Amino acid sequence: MMKLDILVFAAHPDDAELGCGGTIIQQIEAGKKVGIIDLTQGELGTRGDVETREKEAQKANEVMGVMVRENLQMADGFFSHSSQNLLKVVEMVRKYRPDMVLANSVTDRHPDHGKGAKLVSEACFLSGLVKVETSIKGKWQEKWRPKNVFHYVQDRFVEPDFVVDISSVFEKKMEAIKSYSSQFYNPDVKGENTPISSKEFWFFLEARAREFGRSVGAEFGEGFVSDKKLGVKDIWTFL
């Protein structure tokens, strides 16, 4: 079993790249081990299909340098906050034993994002209970609870608890997002127009990153909300 420093959960393939792709790249370049777990295959997406999005996710992985990526194949648009789905997430947390978990926004335009956020947060708590029993391929898993669970801000603006300066890796983040050519603006790909397939959506992504960056004196940033109150041991660690 591979222990990861950071495990990112995403309701759909491309959520991780959009919401925290810069942070992922930054941490990997700093030597951290990062993995992604997609809850669904994004099968309800207006453009593309499961096979296409899987290939696009692998391409994005190569751009970012992600070590592992798995898909839990929950029902896109219809997955529920069930014990079965909670245990699927618990199994992944115990399998990779991350110190930090990044998850979807707690509220957003797509209802799967909020559902995914709540599902992952609760599963991270349950994963630390010894009486919640799970196994993979017949091997019993030990309890594990991440030190922190943070939610990346997505389509709708949410006031972040902190912002990560991603100025040095912003272009690489955009390259990873562009791996999903079936989903986002690409003049060479035909398909029905969606809120994220227009050229204007690229402007929005840059504007949001600049907005968060400006708030902390950086060019580009990504915002996060914490499941718990954050503390520092040294007041000088702030930007």
Can you walk through the features of this model?
The protein has helices spanning 15-29, 50-64, 83-96, 111-126, 170-177, 199-215, and strands at residues 6-10, 34-40, 68-74, 100-103, 135-136, 139-140, 148-152, 162-165, 221-226. The chain has 239 residues and is of the alpha/beta class. The protein has a seven-stranded mixed β-sheet with strand order 3-2-1-4-7-9-8, sandwiched between helices. The protein has a two-stranded antiparallel sheet with strand order 5-6.
Defining key terms:
239 residues; alpha/beta; 6 helices; 18% strand; 9 strands
State the gist of this model:
This protein is of the alpha/beta class. The strands form 2 sheets. Strands 3-2-1-4-7-9-8 form a 7-stranded mixed sheet, with helices on both faces. The chain has a two-stranded antiparallel ribbon with strand order 5-6.
Layout of helices and strands:
Layout lengths: L5 E5 L4 H15 L4 E7 L9 H15 L3 E7 L8 H14 L3 E4 L7 H16 L8 E2 L2 E2 L7 E5 L9 E4 L4 H8 L21 H17 L5 E6 L13
Parallel strand pairs: 1-2, 1-4, 2-3, 4-7
Antiparallel strand pairs: 5-6, 7-9, 8-9
Low-confidence stretches: none
The span between the termini is: 36 Å
- From the helix content, strand content and strand pairing, which structural class follows? alpha/beta
Measured as a percent range, the helix fraction is 25-40%
Order of helices and strands: EHEHEHEHEEEEHHE
Q: Helix count?
A: 6
Q: How large is the radius of gyration?
A: 17 Å
Biggest sheet features: 7 strands, mixed
Please tell me what the overall shape is: globular
* Mean pLDDT metric: 95
For the biggest β-sheet, the strand order reads 3-2-1-4-7-9-8
Strand content: 15-25%
Number of strands: 9
